[in-house]
Amino acid sequence: MKRTLSILLASLFVIAGAIVAVGARGGEIPEPPAIGATIEDFTLPDVDNKDHSLKSLAGKNGTVLIFIAVQCPVSNAYNERMEKLAQDYKARGINVVGINSNVAEDAAAVKAHAAAHNLTFTILKDPGNKIADKLGASVTPEAYFLDTNNKLLYHGRIDNARNPAQLETSDLRNALDAALAGKAVEKTEAKAFGCTIKRA
Amino acid sequence: MRFTKAIIPITLCVLLVSLAAPAQKQKGRTAKPTQPTAVVSAIDTDALKGLLTQQRERPLLVNFWATFCDPCRDEFPDLVKINSDYPSQSLEFFTVSLDDVSEINKEVPKFLDAMKAKMPAYLLNVNDPEPAINLVDRKWRGDLPATFLYNEKGEVVYKHIGRVNVAELREAIDKVVKKGSS
User: Fold this and answer.
1) What phi and psi values does residue B14 have, to the nearest 5 degrees?
2) Same domain, B134 and B95
């Protein structure tokens, strides 16, 4: 009886410890990799639960990963711009890939949202926000531009303005154009502004 | 017979109440929507700088938030409570919304009204939020909510990105608020 009680108490401590650990981690978003760091290949399911590796989705001149959302008004304000970006640069060998890491937005919601907003680029679901953590993504939309060797060349916002009428600086496009022209990216980071990714 | 006599008035009462309830609901539905009363002032980066750097005689608490940000909405009641617990003579407190300017007379004051928020409310109206974010804290990536506490000298003594830990924030405020003034 005594032994059962001590096992029970020990288990309770372990569970309580785990809860505290998760709670403490809750508010902390990992730091993003430094510009120039190489992003390891990863595999995530798309909205039809078909797995894709980063390598399999990469364009011949690079890849843009954009963390996006279904319900975020800031991310939604960029739907047309993201699709246009994907179309414009697909022809130039850079593939745009969306990643949805929001715990409350399941694959079916992401699929319906993409159809409703004519998003034709591949969108991956990131269960447990593992890739968001790996890349230190904190908001939607937030973009990462990788070269052909998965080296991070640019990280941050798509452009300066949620409202396209106030557009002044297309930071992501500038980075892509520079890389395609064989030049160094001038502005390698710009703070992304949007809705906080709802982590698991 | 006695039972029947008793049951009839009870049934009538239940019937009347059930008929009245939907009518009440209907009344609520058709009521004219009221205009929000909270005043939200638009500010640019320079105005924000002025608010943050002006000379003051008490600590300053600033919360950056947006109506589209769930953790911001979740923590707001705690901030309203803090504002009522620390009178403005002991702690200055204002909020800065990062909503789109189109919401300045709509969702932002509507939410502030619902929260019964009394602290001064601003909305950052800029084409590019990056300079304002860097002005507040170069290490802040712009994610919301973000809460900063400055001492009387204007130095950041507490900051938290994400939903605040109320006990932690109160402890930080208590450290800088002059004793006897709260």
Assistant:
1) -60, -45
2) yes
**Does B181 reside within a domain?**
no
ipTM of this predicted structure: 0.78
Q: Which of A161, A163, A196 sits opposite B71 (nearest CB)?
A: A196
Q: Spell out which residues of chain B touch residue A139, defining contact as CB-CB under 8 Å.
A: 141-143
Enumerate residues 127 to 156 of chain A having a beta carbon within 8 A of any beta carbon in chain B.
138-139
Query: B182 in a domain, yes or no?
Result: no
Taking residue A112's Cβ as centre, other Cβ atoms within 10 Å add up to 13
Read off the pLDDT of residues B17-65 as tens digits, 9 standing for 90 and up.
444 444 444 444 555 667 889 999 999 999 999 999 998 889 999 999 9
B52 in the same domain as B112: yes
Cβ distance of A191 and B161 shorter than 8 Å:
no
- Cβ neighbours of B100 in A, within 8 Å: 73, 162-163
Q: Quick one: tokens of A100?
A: 């949805």
Nearest to B128 by CA among A120, A143, A170: A170
Q: How many domains does chain B have?
A: 2
Please give the model's pTM, rounded to 2 decimal places.
0.81
What is the phi-psi region of residue A170: left when phi exceeds 0, alpha when psi lies from -120 to 50, beta otherwise?
A: beta
